[in-house]
Design the sequence.
């Protein structure tokens, strides 16, 4: 998936801000991993940036393009990661502008993707 050139720093800041509002269990799990440089890079590159791309470009893509990119997003999510990423789909902070014209069925498809692609 070609990544949208969203500022990495702004994304990291949005994630750090979201971590403060997580419940204690998810905050402890995610914070422990977020301090690991390798995990942080991997999370941003394979989970957060593709989500931003789907949000930013998904509102103008055809159904085939959107569904193809969504199917190609091969990531598995832990519960704490879903808790961090879900507000980006639902509208949170700077990223809220990206959801402005997102068709509701596509936003729901993104949420469904997060919920069905879980680590067991």
Sequence:
């Amino acid at each position: 998936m070609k990544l949208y050139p969203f500022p990495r720093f702004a994304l990291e800041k949005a994630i750090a801000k979201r971590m403060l509002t997580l419940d204690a269990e998810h905050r402890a799990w995610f914070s422990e991993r977020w301090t690991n440089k390798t995990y942080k890079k991997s999370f941003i590159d394979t989970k957060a940036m593709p989500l931003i791309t789907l949000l930013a470009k998904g509102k103008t893509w055809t159904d085939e393009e959107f569904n193809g990119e969504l199917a190609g997003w091969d990531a598995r999510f832990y519960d704490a990661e879903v808790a961090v990423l879900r507000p980006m789909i639902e509208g949170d902070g700077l990223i809220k502008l990206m959801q402005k014209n997102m068709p509701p069925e596509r936003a729901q498809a993104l949420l469904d993707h997060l919920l069905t692609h879980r680590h067991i």
Q: What stands out?
A: Helices lie at 8-19, 24-34, 37-58, 63-72, 79-90, 96-99, 104-116. The two ends are 25 Å apart (CA to CA). The chain has a mean pLDDT of 84.
